[in-house]
Every structure is written in C-alpha cells, then in structure tokens.
Amino acid sequence: MKKILNDLKLKFDNANWALDPELALIDTVLEQHPELYEIVKEDIKRIGKDSEAGRQDSPTLEQIVRAALYKEMKKLNYRELEYAQYDSRVCSTFIKLDGRKPISFEAYYKYISQIKAKH
Q1: What are the helix (H) ranges across 13-47?
Q2: Burial (CB count within 10 angstroms: exposed 0-12, middle 13-18, buried 19+), residue 27
Q3: Distance between CA atoms of residues 88 and 8, nearest Å
C-alpha cells in the first residue's frame, strides 16, 4: 500500500495526472500489477491478436485494456475515444501511446468489443 501511495505522490507532481486522480490511481495499479492484462488476453487472442509489442497499426494488449478502461470511465463512444487520444494528454499518456500515432476507432472497436463482461 505504501508503494502505491508513494507512486501516486510522484504522479501528482505531474500536472496532467493531478487533473485526473482516478486515472492516476488506475495507472499506478496497472503498472504495479501487469498480470491484470492477462484477464482479457484470451478474448483478444480469439480474433488473432497475440502481439506483445503491437504493430504500428494495431494496439498492444496493454493499450487495449487501458483504452477500454478510459472509454468506460469517461463514457465515450469509439469515435470519441479516438478523438480523445489527439485532444487529451492524459488520455494518450494513460493509453501509453508514447508518441506513436493514435489508434483508430475501428481498431479499438475490433478489440474492445471482444472483451467479455465477466471473467
């Protein structure tokens, strides 16, 4: 618990994260527990997605999960999610675009819509 609090304290020094503390908390938990991505890995693999690094035109498993979380938390549709990547530093940081071109709404739909509600 202390590590999460320390990591959050560091994140809040960044003005972008300070604007959205819920995303900062989720980002911290995901960074400390990458095994959480495995929960949806089988859903994504069913449609032929099994890349750890991701190609330039397809998101990684981590980006898919993060985008799905962002979409649900902000109550966005897929087009709004695509736009948010261009418009919001917090969004692009949370999804971990790391300077690469934002992912299309079609690609997000292809992957996120395959995630089952219950695991």
Answers
A1: 15-18, 21-32, 41-45
A2: buried
A3: 20
